[in-house]
Amino acid sequence: MKAAPALAEGFPDLSGMHVAREPHWFRWFSAALIVLVLAAVARAFANGQIEWSYVSRFLTAKVILEGIVNTMVMAVLAMALGIFLGVVVAIMRLSPNPVLKSVATGYTWLFRGTPLILQLLLWFNLALVFPTIGIPGLWSARAVDVMTPFLSALLGLGINQGAYTSEVMRAGMLSVDIGQYEAAQAIGMGRLRALRRIILPQAMRVVIPPIGNEFIGLVKATSLASVIQYPEVLHNAENIYYANSRVIELLIVAGIWYLLVVSILTPLQMLLERRFARGTLQFAR
Amino acid sequence: MTKPLVAIRSVSKAFGEFQALKGVSLDVWAGEVMCLIGASGSGKTTLLRCINQLTAIDSGGIWLDGELLGVREEGGRLHRLTERQLAQQRLKTGMVFQRFNLFPHKTAIENITEGPVQVQGRKPDEVRAEAIELLRRVGLSAKAESYPAQLSGGQQQRVAIARALAMKPMLMLFDEPTSALDPELVGEVLAVMKELARSGMTMMVVTHELGFAREVADRVVYMDHGAIVEQGRASEVLGAPREARTKAFLSAVI
Ligand SMILES: Nc1ncnc2c1ncn2[C@@H]1O[C@H](COP(=O)(O)OP(=O)(O)O)[C@@H](O)[C@H]1O
Ligand SMILES: [Mg+2]
């Protein structure tokens, strides 16, 4: 047995020394600069032609509150419709049946390829094309009565959203390992049951962040429904400033509400993500 | 005269130009443990997948328990079965994959109960009791509520075996069940398979574990380039191979 060789000279003992804190001059400088710019902007707005008293008064006005409720109702319903259509279309798109596949592809192509505002106007003006609509022999009605601003906005926003959501869902399903599908088949599951029980729950984990994105986009896109007289928050704000000419004040009111709603959505999304992370290492136990 | 549990007759399968199976014929008898050996790419996985119909064959026929798989003969023609009928036929076989393929969003016991409850429509309480017994049998009673990510590879593969057994299959297919495992975990999985073999289960095992084949297999089948080259008792094929290709393969792996 040989003794360990002696260590070479010339390398001082560093144990017991701490790593010094650096002053980070540039960070201090840039932070100060940003504070200055923000202060200047705030000052400009405070001294500008804005009556802040109007902003605080109208922030909780009944019409505005009704508007934001309508915005939320529409966003939630249209998203529900969008997710439903998105899942169905994604499944059709991945099906071996060429007919289902091309119907799904055509849907996505049509509704992603035209402006949302155009689709809203088309739904709202459907009566110009079909004066009466219905199921022959069972039910019919005048299109102007059926295509209310609410239903037109719901169909326009929801069907458009479905086209985008289907691609998010398809990406999520493709991200699940093919072995999962084979294991499901091996225990006797058919295609749809395997999708519902095995593939979709795993895909959800991947799709929630982009779906959250889509939903935030949709909350703001509801403002387009003001062109078809749906009384969402921006539409109501516009109606007020047509009367009192406080344009900027009311736009700020609407803006504050959009920001507020979107801020609440982020923690909700975190909760959902946790729910679907079951079994992954980071949240296990 | 009794019939084999599995009868494979002149089965061929091509992927594009490549012929993965070239007219394979084979019988597997009830209670038999058969080990399939052969170089990578020789068609062993493809053969198992054809029996479980994860892959559709091009020609030939496979009968399981007297029933023709995947197609129905009518008026001198073969008609493909529907998705639902295929799923029904798959219930007779259990499959264990090289990469386990446990459902990561379900606990060990949920992985086991999923098939019997969702597919076979059996009572959850009764299935759960059986699942607990199966977990005990594979030595994982303490891991019922663990997710796959919390289990070692060997434990995951044992849960996968229990999941397949929960469907009460007549035939178990194993595709290199220990190839993805660290060496020290291979033994625990092989022990479960040995116990299963002793219990009388009919098994087809693709494996490179020649020790396991020697000890457990009733018959060893050597495949090369999509065809069966040699088959016989384990001691014969592994101990005294007749074919030159078998000899070359065995001397390469040992
Ligand atoms: N889905 C597939 N598409 C194309 N080629 C395949 C496919 N599956 C298997 N093969 C080919 O078939 C041959 C046999 O594969 P396999 O049955 O997996 O062999 P083994 O399990 O004996 O290693 C290989 O050459 C493989 O590349
Ligand atoms: Mg293989």
UniProtKB/TrEMBL annotation, chain A:
Annotated function: Part of the ABC transporter complex GltIJKL involved in glutamate and aspartate uptake. Probably responsible for the translocation of the substrate across the membrane.
Pfam families per UniProt: BPD_transp_1
GO cellular-component term (any): ATP-binding cassette (ABC) transporter complex
Family label: Belongs to the binding-protein-dependent transport system permease family. HisMQ subfamily.
Localisation per UniProt entry: Cell inner membrane; Cell membrane
Record protein name field: Glutamate/aspartate import permease protein GltK
Location of the ABC transmembrane type-1 domain: 68-269
CDD domains: TM_PBP2
Major site of localization recorded for this protein: membrane
Protein's membrane topology: Multi-pass membrane protein
GO molecular function: transmembrane transporter activity
Matches recorded under SUPFAM superfamilies: MetI-like (SSF161098)
Sorted UniProt keywords: Amino-acid transport, Cell membrane, Membrane, Transmembrane, Transmembrane helix, Transport
GO biological process assignments: amino acid transport
Quaternary context: The complex is composed of two ATP-binding proteins (GltL), two transmembrane proteins (GltJ and GltK) and a solute-binding protein (GltI).
Lineage: Bacteria, Pseudomonadati, Pseudomonadota, Alphaproteobacteria, Hyphomicrobiales
From TrEMBL, chain B:
Keyword Chaperone annotated: no
Species annotation: Bradyrhizobium nitroreducens
Molecular functions per Gene Ontology: ABC-type amino acid transporter activity; ATP binding; ATP hydrolysis activity
Name the UniProt record assigns to this protein: Arginine ABC transporter ATP-binding protein
UniProt-listed PROSITE patterns: ABC_TRANSPORTER_1, ABC_TRANSPORTER_2
Protein family (similarity comment): Belongs to the ABC transporter superfamily.
PANTHER family associated with the record: AMINO ACID IMPORT ATP-BINDING PROTEIN, PHOSPHONATES IMPORT ATP-BINDING PROTEIN PHNC
Domain ABC transporter per the UniProt entry, residue ranges: 6-250
Database matches in Pfam families: ABC_tran
Keywords: ATP-binding, Nucleotide-binding, Transport
Function: Involved in beta-(1-->2)glucan export. Transmembrane domains (TMD) form a pore in the inner membrane and the ATP-binding domain (NBD) is responsible for energy generation.
Gene3D superfamilies linked to this entry: P-loop containing nucleotide triphosphate hydrolases (3.40.50.300)
Domain of life: Bacteria
